[in-house]
Amino acid sequence: MFKGNYLSLYYAVGQQVAVVLRALQEFLMRYFFLPEQLAVWNLTVIIVNAASLFQVNLIAAINIKIAQMIGSGEADVEKQKVRASAVCIEFFQQMVLITAVLLIAPLIWDLPEKYSTIVLLSAGLTIFQTALINVFVGLHESNGSFVRLGIVLPVNAFMQLLLVWIGILTFELMGLFVSMLLGSLLSLIILLFSLKFLRLGAVQSPSLVQSKQLLDTAFRFRVYDIGTSVFYALDTLVASVVLTPIGLSLFVTAKFCASLSSQVILAFSRMNLVRLGNSIGAGRDSIEISEGITKQFFLVYVVLAPALILLAVPLFRLVLPIFLPAYTDSLNVLPFFMLGILCSSRALFLRNLWIQSNQWRRIGASGIMALATSVPILYFGINFFGPLDGADLAKLVVVAQMPYALVLIFTVSKTNCSLNHALNRLFSFSISFVGICVSLHFNGSYAAFPYNNFSSFVYGLAIGFGSFIPFLICGLIVNKLLSNKLPVS
Prior knowledge:
This protein is an all-alpha fold. 83% of the residues lie in helices and 0% in strands. It has helices at residues 2-32, 35-52, 58-72, 76-108, 116-142, 146-197, 208-242, 245-261, 263-281, 286-323, 334-340, 352-356, 360-385, 390-416, 419-442, 454-483. It is globular, with a radius of gyration of 22 Å.
């Protein structure tokens, strides 16, 4: 137990250090470029994110297959065949996807004439390199090599930051594109050497049987998960259409700040997926698994997420006006993206139960439900309230994501365990959401005025955390009562 907590802490700290370095990189980009200049790079990022919707989810297939093989004690040779097959499949997939992007992207987006070629080439190379990086990270995770990742990820982030700084100083906007690509290539090489050092590399020939099984799982996951993927991409896609270039840059900046603030939650979610696979492969009792997930859900929603959000919002209000004055208006959008963390896939890790047990139809039905509830809300909200700025759109996105979050928590919990667990998890979500809303109100985050000095930052922290304490106490009491009430069915 102690060892597991140690590994979790090590990986989470390493992940967060890498996040801080990436944050410095983003601040550096926004320090040298105005919002309208950075809009060119943002367009590249949007194309890359849109293309990712059409990839088969090989990472999920790896985490399902290898994690369960480790749990059941299968031979290393078979696991090496799975890894070799995964790399070959990913390489072929990216070649097909890049070709499609180069042909179709100019028909969808109005590319700036001066940078159209560099945007397309950068998008294609970024898609390829990012996909292989994710596969190599996934191979580390599925093997439980979290300590190694706790070292490699910060090293990669530091090298990327250094290259971006040199590139911008030397070649300005063109240097940003080149340095990002070189940084991704270097990260790819470091991860590959790490795999070789761990003897996890493709030392076996790809297996046709394992390739078919991986493709079957990856394809099923992508097909049934496409609704959820589109659902989580709607905010950026809609923003790219309804907001001005400057508004889009401010919107993306706020979303990036929220993403940075929730990386620790992402680390916990990834480890949960792997350990859940180990538990299922080892044949552990479902009651024990359900109780462990409920405890982790409470920890994430009532302790970890509020702590991260109530620390991050005042911190950004202090540093953004100082280092990125042109992006100060992102503070208007930031609180609502922070609330959106609670509805994000990284926080709603309960779905890992469906993923590891191959309940594809339930995953597909939840995605359809997500789109069926969110698209009408976004459509009528945009048309009813007229032209929206970034803050209005972010509010609308949170409202559109809430029904999916609530239904998913109840449905996953009810199908895999008892009503008691479902109520416990729903309450954890609700008390967290309401408590954070109230705390952000009391510390003045919705007013979006910047902090002028460190003492005002400390005061904002104290008000935010102090106002959340009653909700924390209430959550602890109710969690204790519900945990002792009913057996798992």
